[in-house]
Specification:
6-stranded parallel β-sheet, alpha/beta, 10 helices
């Protein structure tokens, strides 16, 4: 990739400081992604990983702010802690009930959740699949699904069906949709009762962590269906393998990772980086591992 002059032509001591905070955190791809964004846009930043004790998120962030830190990404298990830490929440962070991006301003701390918009951007722009007027199935009703809810509804799908093993958590999301996007058509179903084929199916369950398949019937998928797994890896997940067997188009969540990072970068720096080259580079690295 050809970039403008590197931000590292200045000393790191002069650079604006950003971190990604988690536990564990060493595996994070965020420093590499943001280094590429910074080089591409000519922004003078330094972005590192930061390990926080499980009971020490607020103290860790407070110390980083006191040292002049400008912002932070937040990953598991601290997204709820970050939501509590922020003094102001964006609408999508408030609806998600979780924060993955903090910006430290003079007047306080802005908390945002860029996961859902990262998902939508990857589907609409990178995969070229419009969500407007479409039948969308969201599998799962946990934190990942909640974070995606408002950005998905803002795309004005014909309907959004939330499928889960038990209806109670799905009904909580349905109520949340009524609060933040009144008038949206949001239905809830158990996995086995989702009905006919959908235009887009998003796997927001944790099943792919265990290479398992959420119990969706084959009739849910069709040739025109985009099957999207929020997880990514060197090999297709059980969900994507199953979807491919039904003839669906398949996409994993690597683009979501890059796009949510671009949204955070834009929130901090006021400039949105191009993502295509960074996504291609990460995809190539994954293929080497395959």
């Amino acid at each position: 990739m050809n970039y403008p002059s590197s931000p590292h032509s200045h000393s790191d001591a002069e650079a604006d400081q950003y971190v990604v905070i988690g536990n564990p955190i060493a595996h994070s791809k965020s420093p590499a992604i943001h280094a590429r964004f910074a080089a591409q846009t000519g922004q003078h930043i330094r972005y590192q990983t930061m390990l926080a004790p499980l009971d020490g998120f607020a103290a860790t962030v407070g110390a980083f702010r006191a040292q002049g830190g400008k912002g932070a990404n937040v990953t598991v298990p601290f997204k709820l802690d970050a939501c509590a830490y922020a003094t102001v929440l964006t609408a999508r962070a408030a609806s998600a009930g979780a924060v993955n991006t903090l910006r430290f301003d003079e007047g306080g701390v802005l908390g945002d959740n860029t996961d859902g918009i990262g998902l939508v951007t990857d589907i609409v722009q990178n995969a070229g699949v419009s969500l407007q007027g479409k039948r969308v199935l969201l599998a799962g009703a946990g934190g990942a699904a909640r974070g995606a809810l408002l950005p998905l509804l803002e795309q004005a799908p014909q309907m959004l069906v939330i499928a889960n093993r038990t209806l109670a958590k799905a009904e909580d999301l349905q109520a949340l949709a009524e609060e933040y996007a009144p008038g949206s058509t949001v239905l809830v179903r158990r996995f086995e009762d989702v009905g006919a084929a959908f235009d887009v199916i998003i796997n927001a369950t944790s099943a792919s962590l265990h290479d398992a398949m959420p119990p969706l019937p084959a009739s849910t998928f069709a040739a025109q269906t985009l099957a999207y797994d929020m997880m990514y890896g060197a090999q297709p997940s059980a969900f994507l393998r199953y979807a491919a067997e039904q003839g669906a188009q398949c996409r994993d969540g690597l683009g979501m990772l890059v796009e949510q990072a671009a949204e955070a970068f834009s929130l901090w720096r006021g400039i949105r980086p191009e993502t295509a080259a960074v996504l291609a580079e990460l995809r190539a690295a994954l293929m080497v591992q395959a």
